[in-house]
Amino acid sequence: EPEVTQTPSHQVTQMGQEVILRCVPISNHLYFYWYRQILGQKVEFLVSFYNNEISEKSEIFDDQFSVERPDGSNFTLKIRSTKLEDSAMYFCASGGLAGGLTTQYFGPGTRLTVL
Amino acid sequence: AQTVTQSQPEMSVQEAETVTLSCTYDTSENNYYLFWYKQPPSRQMILVIRQEAYKQQNATENRFSVNFQKAAKSFSLKISDSQLGDTAMYFCAFIFSGAGSYQLTFGKGTKLSVIP
To answer: Residue A106 and residue B91: Cβ atoms within 8 Å?
Structure first.
């Protein structure tokens, strides 16, 4: 069964450093998402991506964040200058053969620790 | 704004028994989907079950079933014959198609412990 994959599983970085989190969505999906979950809290939407552009972003997704689909398979989230409060689990999700109102399938997550 | 409320922060159930997790939501939309996701200690988000709002029939997936009450905006999850592997956080989530927005809105979760 196809699944969403994410690398790395755990990333430790120093405050102020740039990180890139990588995702490979399910191959025939058209919509891609990043969500964040701070430890002990609920999952929060960051950004959605469709047709090679951002379709929606939340207040959390400020200028420090960017997303890219550099080729036909990868979907990346970049944080330019990490802050302590960026420490969280980051989930990539994909969904939608047509239209976005459909099931989103999540990857296993990347645990980001900012020191 | 759409909101999802899970009023039970923690619950426990004996192995092989049945448990029901509650979820209510608030929306003015008519076309939407509802989901239950499971998050075990590994923290991966696993889809348990989904319900389309236009369907009157309650969704079922093996031991998991929902009680969807559209007028009451209620979407509870019933787990039958609970197993130790069901121990996890359970998140209720909502998605609608308003203005091209397809983001999931999650509740705060219910921590379920299955006791041997």
So the answer is: no
- Tell me how many domains chain B contains: 1
Q: What are phi and psi of B88, to 5 degrees?
A: 180, 170
* Chain A hits for B91, Cβ within 8 Å: 42-43
Which tokens belong to A104? Answer: 């989103």
Query: Strand A31-37 relative to strand A88-95: parallel, antiparallel, unpaired?
Result: antiparallel
Task: Give the nearest chain B residue to A88 (CA atoms).
Answer: B43
Which residues of B touch chain A, with CB atoms under 8 Å apart? 31-33, 35, 37, 42-47, 50, 91, 93, 95-97, 100-109
| Inter-chain CB proximity A101 and B102 less than 8 Å | yes
Domains and CATH numbers, chain A: 5-96 (2.60.40.10)
Give me the domain span that covers residue B109.
3-115
Q: Residues B13-22: pLDDT tens digits?
A: 999 999 999 9
Closest-CA residue of B relative to A48 is B103
With a cut of 60, say whether residue A100 has pLDDT above it.
Answer: no
The CATH code of the domain that includes B104 is 2.60.40.10
Count other C-beta atoms under 10 Å from residue B46's C-beta: 14
Strands B10-14 and B110-115: parallel
Taking residues B62-73, report their average pLDDT. Answer: 96
Q: Regarding predicted confidence, which is higher, A29 or A85?
A: A85
